[in-house]
Amino acid sequence: MLMGANQSGKTWCGAAEAAFHLTGLYPDDWIGRRFVGPTRGWIGCDTFPNVRDGAQRVLVGEPKLESAWGSGLIPGHLIAGSARATGTPDLLDYVLVRHTSGGVSSAAFKSYDQGRKRWQGETLDWVWFDEEPPEEIYTEGLTRTNATGGMVWLTFTPLQGMSRVVHQFIEDTGGLR
Prior knowledge:
CATH superfamily: P-loop containing nucleotide triphosphate hydrolases
CATH topology: Rossmann fold
Radius of gyration: 15 Å
Shape: globular
CATH class: Alpha Beta
Strand content: 15-25%
Order of helices and strands: EHEHEEEEHEH
Strand order of the largest sheet: 1-7-6-2-5-4-3
């Protein structure tokens, strides 16, 4: 969990971690988890326009300029494919990314306002919540990683104060660090 002030680089940090896991290109001094093969992940935010203008833009590039795709944290030559979502202009449904292992990783873009049921069913290696999710969405996202021993990370400004999601981290760690 990375909590911080508005405009302090939280989304960029979360996107960097997603890019590392999607590509397999980890910094030499990376001490976090490393996946040796392609990964499957979900990236969620409160609304689809916020997904597009935040996480998708930082990862892939400027959403309104398809020619700029590949100018984000995922290098253009590693983008193996994508599909546009319906209903929100310039939003991607998913992106496929070449992994250093030779396989292809995937990341789907999700929205909390889709409701809990749209967060069910998949088995994933990781989930990134860019903005604090409602507790039922957080729980579904966490459940998606159970079978793989995967991971979940959150990047947000604590606008809801001491929510139940934040409280889970305090209980699990004995306090915020």
